[in-house]
Amino acid sequence: MQGDKKAKKGPSQKQRGHPRDSPEVRLSKSLSWLLRHGADKSGLHIRPDGYAKVSEVLSNPMLRDVTFLDLQEIVKRDQKSRYNLLFEPQTSESSGSDVWWIRANQGHSMKDIKLELEPITSASDIPMAVHGTTRKAWDLIATQGLSKMTRNHIHLAQGVPGNNVLSGMRKSSQILIFIDVQKALHAGIKLYLSTNGVVLTEGNADGYLSPEFFQRVENADRTSVQGWECSGPITPPIAAPPDLKLQSDPAAMMEKVLLEGANVAKDSNIISP
Question: Hey, what CATH class is 12-104 in?
């Protein structure tokens, strides 16, 4: 009897998230879990590129009250661009009707999902790569490195939390780990860019990104973590200092000023008398 009951048990109707979360947040968490981690458990077929049929997604008990228009709004309003909708019209070669598909842009734990990712070949391809974590987790990360754990990739952001929503990092991050991208690339670590701007890496053969690739580590308030100051604060490049040679040569300085003045006049369509 117990075996029969277990066999008849279908996908859970309970939405993901905490009871104190808003209905919108719980709905988004349920959709994210379904497309990133729970497809097999829920009997949802997902293509190797991560797409699932919208009709099948909406038939899941967790999303029983969600319409296609609701789903479009979720995708459109998601500030981290977690999802993508794809429309495939019926063609003369295909049978059936038009089909809408949906996928999560990154964050999968299902090993058979192979997303089309843009390879990062140089540190100049991105402004930075930084991972946000908690103080408790940092104690372990400092010795063993970053781990992809059950996911397919380690997630890195292209900036630090601020006024804008940032894909690839939680706003609650207490520790910021900046990665030396060029050093990692030279060591054979592969890095990619997802369609929503998250930097992804599988790490080494064991799924780790070693501390040797940590360029600098900061607290959330941008102060350095003791022992991990390394190259100093990670900031955008600043303007080059003034030419000291010109400062020591008045004639050269005057020539430079006159030349710049002529260029300004030219650019502004000003005709000198």
Answer: mainly alpha
Rounded distance between C-alpha atoms, residue 273 and residue 271, angstroms: 6
- Residue 99 phi, psi (nearest 5): -130, 135
> Under DSSP, is residue 21 helix (H, G, I), strand (E, B) or coil?
coil
Q: How does DSSP assign 101-123, residue by residue? A: EEEESS----TT-----EEE-SG
How far apart are alpha carbons 252 and 7 in whole angstroms?
A: 87
Which of the four pLDDT bands, split at 50, 70 and 90, describes residue 270?
A: very low
In the chain, at which residue ranges do the beta strands (DSSP E only) sit? 52-53, 83-88, 99-104, 118-120, 130-133, 146-147, 154-156, 175-179, 191-193, 199-201, 208-209, 214-219
CB–CB of 103/52 below 8 Å?
A: yes
SS3 197: coil
The ranges assigned to domains in the chain are 12-104, 118-219
Neighbour order of strands in the sheet with 52-53? 52-53, 99-104, 83-88
Query: Mean of the per-residue pLDDT values for the chain?
Result: 80
In DSSP terms, 120 is beta-bridged to 191
Answer whether residue 194 shows pLDDT above 50: yes
What fold is seen in the domain 118-219? Answer: ADP-ribosylation fold (3.20.170)
